[in-house]
Amino acid sequence: MKFEAVTIKDIAKALGLSTSTVSRALRDSYEISEETKQLVLNYAKEINYRPNPIALSLKEKRSRSIGIIVSEIANSFFSQAINGIESVAHLHGYNVIITQSKESYEREIANIQYLSSRSVDGCIISVSAETKDYTHITELYERNLPIVCFDRVIEALNTFKVTVNSFEGAYNATTHLIKNGFKKIAMLSGSSVLSISKDRLSGYRQALIDNGIEFNENYVAYCQHGGLIYEEVEAALNYLLNLKPKTDAIFAGADKLTTNCMRYCKAHHIDIPKQLALIGFSNLDFTDLLCPPLSVVRQPAFEMGRISAELLIKMIESKRPITDFESKILPAEIYARASTEPINTKKKNEK
């Protein structure tokens, strides 16, 4: 049996009133007596009546809902960012509708079409690893749907953007490995088309050059789905770990890449850090509890989500179109742990 919500008509029928009288009573209209208002309100509370949000959105031309598109909700970075978005949305009386692309371009198109058909007031988007054509997003934006990009941004879209300083995070992670004595540092990267992948590759390359190590593109392997498909990570690591001269450290450029790299090493009995050092982007809360504790570049995900939601609501509630946009770039923080233990320290421990 199909669920049917209680309507104004149901209240009117039960109380022997007209629907217009019930509607005015619920809106606290001066045209309705206090006695009738109280009668309607008490009965509405008794039967758990809730206004129809679709009807309200048609009337007010606002749904008080925000759409979110991320690659994967289970990803620790995105789950923390969603928490940040929801904290602000709730404070301002907005609901959120969360969708995930699973790194699929087609699914991302379906998601944004669904959200726009539900008349969301705006969207916060982190594009999929497969997305190269942004027409499905730019067309809605040009039709005045407020959109904020975060993490994986669309550079050509003139809107608010919220990112972490990927260049600096990658630069500092690679420099950390070099200072600890590693020379043949490979990079495990996400999709080559993503803004964050480009920035992290640039940071990795610059750190090598600044420390007198020649950048060799052969020591960079791409996983087009950012670690979502383990077999993709496995193939990339099979390639990187068979290079000559031998790779002695890996910098992983995304959350899933980092954890799947560790999974690969355990499956192939590769001792971290004795045989291979590892550092990468990860927002998992238990990286310090792994064996060995994992060195990571941690992003302020909650803060990124919070700022994104504040900027989107600013766009939605502005009485005039906003034309002056800015990019918010937040710092990443490195946590150095045992997975990148210095080479000389390892030798001392072996004696």
Automatic annotation (TrEMBL):
Domain of life from the UniProt record: Bacteria
UniProt-recorded Gene Ontology molecular function terms: DNA-binding transcription factor activity; transcription cis-regulatory region binding
Protein name, per record: LacI family transcriptional regulator
Keyword DNA-binding in record: yes
SUPFAM superfamilies (UniProt xref): lambda repressor-like DNA-binding domains, Periplasmic binding protein-like I
Keywords: DNA-binding, Transcription, Transcription regulation
PANTHER family cross-referenced by the UniProt entry: HTH-TYPE TRANSCRIPTIONAL REGULATOR GALS (PTHR30146:SF109), LACI-RELATED TRANSCRIPTIONAL REPRESSOR (PTHR30146)
InterPro entries, A to Z: HTH_LacI (IPR000843), Lambda_DNA-bd_dom_sf (IPR010982), Peripla_BP/Lac1_sug-bd_dom (IPR001761), Peripla_BP_I (IPR028082)
Domain HTH lacI-type, residue spans: 6-60
